[in-house]
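Memo to structure team: turn this sequence into structure tokens by end of day. - J.P.
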Amino acid sequence: MKKFIDSPATVLDMSLQGFAKAHADIVELSTEPNFIARRQRKQGKVALISGGGSGHEPLHSGFVGYGMLDAACPGQIFTSPTPDQMMAAAEAVEAGAGVLFIVKNYAGDVMNFEMAAEMLDKPNATVLVNDDVSLPKDHAIGRRGVAGTAIVEKIVGAAAEEGYDLLACKALGDRVVRATASMGVALTSCTVPALGHPTFDLAGDEIEMGVGIHGERGRETGKWVSASEIVEQLAGHLFDELMPQAGQGALLHVNGFGATPLVELHLVYELAWQTFNKRGVNIRRSLVGNFTTSLDMAGCSLTLTLLDEEMQRLWDAPVNTAALRWGC
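Reply from structure team:
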């Protein structure tokens, strides 16, 4: 294992300190417990809080700022943050209109955010993101929350900025989740610093279809085929899940897992755009890059969100965070 770290025990704290210094115009770091908060906050606005295990950067800390999150709670690598982090973050950023928690559907995240929500003495609600269609709808623990989380945070964040109340923000978030489907593929595993070696092995001629974002295996191991064939498989699953009508407007997000270069991600976008266009989907908006990563995993995911006019307007609204900036 070759990584730019001094020790697995200190990697998160040092990374958070560096992140806060690099983006000091937007965020501030609170410690004991750790959370990243928006520096400039607005009274009377619903506070959006998300979080999860680290290793998925820029999710979630990179989305703290104007038009998105008010705070993010980072856990250790691939480990849920604790309820005291969420409580401290909520107390710091709640601005008189309640708190909306945006939670990826992983057991630890769900349990700890539920505990925080129950203990918090302020109005609050939760949006549960479960966009990973590699798992069946009736899976025992439900579908995982993956790259679609960033889409939810952007659209709902814009709504909160416009003055939507807590119930309206939750209803919108739930609607975006229902309109969103994701699926990923890995060419390699990732290496967790504390483990020191890849979490699973793939032969040189193998790929892992339907992976999550925590270095876990996917739904099946298959043979390495052309990019066109891989993208056709991914796009087909999303289309079959959402069943968009002809001419339906959509946002297409190609997300890298950390070790796939942009030249390949944009190639994947072109192939996915062609595939959806042939099926009658009108791709109106795009997002390409590393936004929900799995440390140093090579691979990517496709996310399709079916847009209505309100969702498209909110996607276009100004945003100013470390990872997303436009219109400001």
